[in-house]
Amino acid sequence: MTIKTGEKLPQLELPLVGGGTKALGDPAGARFIVLVFYRGLHCLRCNPYLNLYEAMLPEFEALGAEVIAVSVDVRAKAEQSYAEWGLKNLKMAYGFPIADAPAWGLYVTDGTRPQDPPQFVEPALFITGPDGALDHGIINTAQRLRPDPAAVLDHLKDRIAEARG
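The structure assignment produced for this chain is given below.
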């Protein structure tokens, strides 16, 4: 299944590193939400990629956009990623259920190395508008070719300018 632009994302509530939860797919009020699905602690490419979002977080927040990293990792692995990767402000949700991947159109990979989880999702990016509907989505079939956070920021600037008329 593929979610189309303008459709609502499936509803799901996930725990956040540091406490609390985040409801995905809910209307966001006046905000855009950027959901950055990453492979997990075992992925060497995820660390620098999420650090790009961490570095640009003030720019996203200045636009009124919220950025949330999402993985299937269990709490301990998500907390380890957060600490070891030097993340301080990026919201990180964990425990995304593998069984929900098809509803989101996500590609699932079976782990092959000892440090890999049994299964994980490949990177994806979803931007939801204030109504909780999909504004833009990019779903990867493998770990490479992730969208540049600067391009995501530019897209949001354009979308917010369009919304203001």
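Interim note for the steering committee: The chain has a mean pLDDT of 91. The chain is about 30% helix and 25% strand.
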